[in-house]
Design goal:
With 148 residues, the protein is mainly beta. It has a domain at 27-129. Helix content is 8%, strand content 18%. The protein has two helices and six strands. The protein has a two-stranded antiparallel sheet with strand order 1-4. The radius of gyration is 25 Å and the shape is extended. The model has no long low-confidence stretch (mean pLDDT 76).
Length: 148
């Protein structure tokens, strides 16, 4: 018999159209009270910062010294992004069971989610690779009368 998880929350969804903080709390106070260290071994992420001498075991994070992990035993890197968002994504396992999996919302290889550096499409003199874009347009007068 499969294990079933039921999530019941008495919290009502909030209006998420704009940012706000609790009344009477500044952003600096909020960050000071709630900021946490985020250990992360996702080495492909731009924000993954390896720290020489850092060793944090999963057993100490779980506060269970007898815990033996199946994969990597611990962490040697942290997420250096100023703010991290964690969201639950639902994945289907074996086509039958759906499981919510926490995912880092800000994981990126280039430092900015959705960011593309268009400068890499230009040559060192500023012209695009493949020649001039104007020369490929049929309206350019190149001695050909065009279509009739």
């Amino acid at each position: 018999m499969p294990i079933t998880f039921h999530f019941n929350s008495k919290e009502k969804p909030q209006d998420m159209t704009e940012d706000s903080l609790p009344e009477g709390v500044t952003e600096e106070e909020f960050k000071q009270q709630y900021a946490k260290i985020v250990y992360c071994n996702y080495r492909e992420c731009f924000w993954n910062t390896r720290i020489e001498g850092l060793k944090k075991t999963k057993a100490s994070i779980l506060m269970n010294r007898t815990y033996v992990p199946l994969g990597e035993p611990g962490f040697s890197a942290v997420c250096s992004r100023p703010e991290i968002a964690i969201q639950l994504n639902t994945y289907t396992i074996g086509g039958i069971q759906k499981r919510p999996v926490p995912t880092c919302f800000t994981a990126a290889k280039n430092g900015k989610t959705g960011h593309m550096d268009f400068a890499r499409l230009l040559q060192s003199d500023g012209s695009p690779y493949g020649g001039s874009l104007e020369s490929q347009h049929p309206a350019i007068d190149d001695g050909f009368e065009g279509y009739i």
